[in-house]
Amino acid sequence: MARATRRPPKVRRASGRDPAEDLRAIAFALERAGEGAYRVQAFRQAADAVAGLGGTALAAHLAAGTLTHVPGIGAVTAACVAESVAGQEPSYLKKIGAPEPTALRADLRGDCHSHTNWSDGSHSVEEMALAAMELGHEYLVVTDHSPRLTIARGLSAERLAEQLAVIAAVNSVLCRRLRVLAGIEVDILADGTLDQTDELLDRLDVVVASAHSGLREASPRMTRRLLRAVRDPRVNILGHCTGRLRSERKNRPESTFDAAAVFAACAEHQVAVEINSRPERLDPPSRLLKVALDAGCLFAIDSDAHAPGQLDWLDNGCARAERAGVPVDRIVNTWPVDRLLRWSRRLRSPLGG
Q: The domain at 19-96 falls in which architecture?
């Protein structure tokens, strides 16, 4: 039976600061800044080590200067703990800082594209949900990959069914403080069909359809492929439509397709065009965003987060939507969850539940 675990209660010191929470805040900020997983994990391990010590043992180690003798705590994290216990915001946390929020960010109620350790994310459903809740989200859609994307540990039909039970268990623990919605980032196959069974897709709350392979196909073929996908009644969001990547590690050009035709189909079938907030994607490009806007499309500003700190990338997409003049009411994740679900499930088979 699927079970969700509760986060241990926070233990605040006399200073009013919790050193374990400060260490977790640093890990979150490092993820948001795009730092390497090794550095992020070092702060999370230190946070767990500090939380496991208890106040008396922690004070004794600090007094003796032996905190670095505790497994999982190094010189940098020990210095952060000492500052936190003294009532100071750790200087490491100050150094990372946070982006200035956009005006639109306050209108977003949730995030329709996120990944967990069921596929290629780094954290559990519950850990991602708790991070989203702390960011003020009302809902988070978990959209792990589908089976054909083996490099990302895509979910078979059996594993996806298991994940649905886990999501239900997490929701029972959260008691509607945040609602986790069941979704998928389903691969658009070469012929435009979807990489999961119709029965399971009908059971989901939100379906994001994305192409991850064959991205250099000729424009007419890619156009036919995307058109078939967005015309499928189970598809709600067209994910990172050009598939481009722009980073120091990988540079992949845009797919080419008839944007006017694809976005007209999105508008006709009420499929939202994703404004992907990942720094290396920022997809669609500005010129295509304008085409989608003029076509009358709905939009979803999504983080495509693979770790808790990446959930805070939404400002990237908000800034692009603001510059393009996207009306707030055409952004589906500004809607309350009941309206979002009426839209997303309007064409689903009743056999899907």
A: Orthogonal Bundle (1.10)
3-state secondary structure of 111: strand
| Cα–Cα distance, 327 to 25 (Å, whole number) | 33
pLDDT in tens, 300-353: 999 999 999 999 999 999 999 999 999 999 999 999 999 999 999 998 765 444
Q: Phi and psi for 35 in degrees, rounded to 5?
A: -70, 165
What are the DSSP calls for 210-270, one per residue? E--S-TT--HHHHHHHHHHHHTSTT--EE-STT--EESSS-EEPPP---HHHHHHHHHHTT
What is the C-alpha to C-alpha distance for residues 186 and 211, in angstroms, rounded to an integer? Answer: 8
- pTM given for the model: 0.87
Q: What is the DSSP letter of 191?
A: T
Q: What phi and psi values does residue 300 have, to the nearest 5 degrees? A: -130, 120
Enumerate the domain spans of the chain.
19-96, 104-352
Kindly state which CATH superfamily the domain 104-352 is placed in: Metal-dependent hydrolases (3.20.20.140)
